[in-house]
């Protein structure tokens, strides 16, 4: 995990950038899939559109099936009250449920606690209420039925595993506590905390090159030429 | 099925509530999945947002593959003309087609007939036209190609089965004619008609407890405490 | 492929119609699935809503996995610069990747080149930027990570194959270069170029019949009667 000082510097440095910019940096650093978490999209403050963005370290919560109650650890009190300020709440429910593990009251509490936003590898509910309170929520989909009947919050601050299937292939991602989440209308990216400072170092060059390419293309130059000129000269 | 008088009372009583409230009541009544029908989302009057809501008894229509023509029953005349007023048209096409079994003309007819809205366990078409006529439609997705080439309306007023796969698990739901449908931006819930009066009885208490929790949380109390206070005292 | 004169006439003739109208014509011509390409939806200029529509011949680009580099053909220079004016760029990346093979700079270039719009059998990125430049993009979903790490543009102007699974059934579609693409809020339809003139011939009759049906239904007639009157008399 990053020290509080480094973390603050990293988050501040990343705020001007988009999830795509950070994915470009992670790709250049050979990080698998550029850190993209497929299947999770913006549901609030708008559905898949608008300029909302969140940047912050992940506070992970791992849920387990109710069948594991008594065998697996269980969080004492309500997990939501333990969310640290300036963090992104990152919820990992079991994949094979259709319950919505997150709703309006949770967002109201997070706002009070000074958190940054919510990412759910599952379903949210109270979608309109989330939007009315302007709280950023990224999720796989909506639902109506609370999670309690299917699963329980078992552990906080542990690594969580996500799976997504596309074209018959299974994509796996591990989110560690303190990994930096950046999420916007294009999706959710997780920066492993060990790569965060490196990302901060190279992302400005990449974005500068892209902006130069875009300007040239708008001026009528070919992409072939402008990529050679601006991306070809990158030193990272 | 409920008598017309009871039905009217139930629908009127449920109108102020959200699909999530009803799912909470059904969960408390031990009804599987809180009645949620996963995979079907609001497409009209807006796409996955806005305050539109429908409440009413299901008028089911079961479609079959064209290969079954001649062997399976077939509805005489056009099924849409037989939709009773104050009902939600609930269409169940075969799962393994990509055709859109429902379009603009159907909604125009339903409006005239005094129906309440449309739920399709499949695809709709004429999405913009549905929105322009402010007709509520919930569906799995959009499409361009009419259903006639793939399937036909075989029976009305019969039980229909829905399947949805999530995280490798198959979720099955049966909708019986007269089950009460409540659908909004969070999704679609089906109340078995035998549980409808019980839902009406307990949903106000649950919502009152939730509102008290939300108020407390907005005032800065922890969720742990406020849940203990308000949800812990519920008598249902 | 159609001659430039015929192509121009076909595209002009189709512009007033919707993807659904064209799918109706293709269904009547016994073309499988009415030409619908399931799973690809409008992402820009708006997400799944609004009146945007594109009509034009497909300029196909087939991507291959990076593992095939050196064995498979590779396009020299950047493929985007070779997109012909008045065409729809049709990108076919491998199905089993989560990378976004298309972004803002590509749209800026296409606008300059006088193309018509973009269809991606995969993910786009820079969703908001696409909307700001009012560029029409249809895709399977959004993403953050550029395609270069997973695949490369291998061939242009070749047949491309799409797969989509629904209800356990695999739907396959082949898009040939020069097939006419028509796409709007209901989805994407591909007209095989050999059927394009036939579609132009019959689509006005179908739409006229539908408009007559809609008018009658709004006037209170049954769908049974109005379909018999207007659709039953069609000569195509």
From TrEMBL, chains A, B, C:
<dbReference type="Pfam" id="PF03737">
    <property type="entry name" value="RraA-like"/>
</dbReference>
<feature type="binding site">
    <location>
        <begin position="103"/>
        <end position="106"/>
    </location>
    <ligand>
        <name>substrate</name>
    </ligand>
</feature>
<dbReference type="InterPro" id="IPR036704">
    <property type="entry name" value="RraA/RraA-like_sf"/>
</dbReference>
<keyword id="KW-0460">Magnesium</keyword>
<feature type="binding site">
    <location>
        <position position="126"/>
    </location>
    <ligand>
        <name>Mg(2+)</name>
    </ligand>
</feature>
<dbReference type="GO" id="GO:0047443">
    <property type="term" value="F:4-hydroxy-4-methyl-2-oxoglutarate aldolase activity"/>
</dbReference>
<dbReference type="GO" id="GO:0046872">
    <property type="term" value="F:metal ion binding"/>
</dbReference>
<dbReference type="InterPro" id="IPR005493">
    <property type="entry name" value="RraA/RraA-like"/>
</dbReference>
<keyword id="KW-0479">Metal-binding</keyword>
<feature type="binding site">
    <location>
        <position position="125"/>
    </location>
    <ligand>
        <name>substrate</name>
    </ligand>
</feature>
<dbReference type="GO" id="GO:0008948">
    <property type="term" value="F:oxaloacetate decarboxylase activity"/>
</dbReference>
<protein>
    <recommendedName>
        <fullName>DlpA domain-containing protein</fullName>
    </recommendedName>
</protein>
């Amino acid at each position: 995990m990053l020290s509080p000082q480094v973390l603050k510097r990293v988050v501040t440095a990343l705020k001007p950038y988009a999830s795509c910019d950070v994915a470009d940096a992670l790709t250049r650093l050979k990080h698998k899939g550029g850190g993209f978490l497929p299947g999770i999209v913006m549901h609030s403050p708008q559905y898949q559109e608008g300029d909302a963005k969140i940047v912050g370290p992940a506070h992970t919560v791992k849920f387990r099936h109710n069948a594991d109650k008594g065998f697996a650890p269980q969080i004492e009190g309500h997990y939501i009250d333990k969310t640290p300020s300036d963090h992104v709440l990152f919820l990992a429910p079991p994949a094979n449920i259709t319950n919505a593990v997150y709703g309006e009251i949770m967002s109201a509490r997070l706002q009070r606690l000074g958190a940054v936003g919510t990412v759910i590898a599952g379903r949210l509910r109270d979608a309109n209420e989330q939007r009315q309170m302007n709280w950023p929520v990224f999720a796989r989909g909506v639902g109506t039925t609370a999670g309690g009947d299917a699963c329980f919050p078992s552990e906080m601050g542990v690594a969580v595993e996500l799976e997504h299937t596309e074209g018959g292939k299974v994509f796996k991602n591990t989110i560690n506590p303190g990994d930096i989440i950046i999420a916007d209308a294009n999706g959710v990216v997780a920066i492993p905390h060990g790569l965060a400072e490196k990302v901060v170092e190279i992302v400005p060059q990449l974005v500068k090159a892209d902006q130069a390419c875009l300007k040239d293309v708008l001026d009528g130059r070919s992409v072939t030429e402008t990529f050679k000129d601006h991306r070809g000269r990158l030193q990272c």
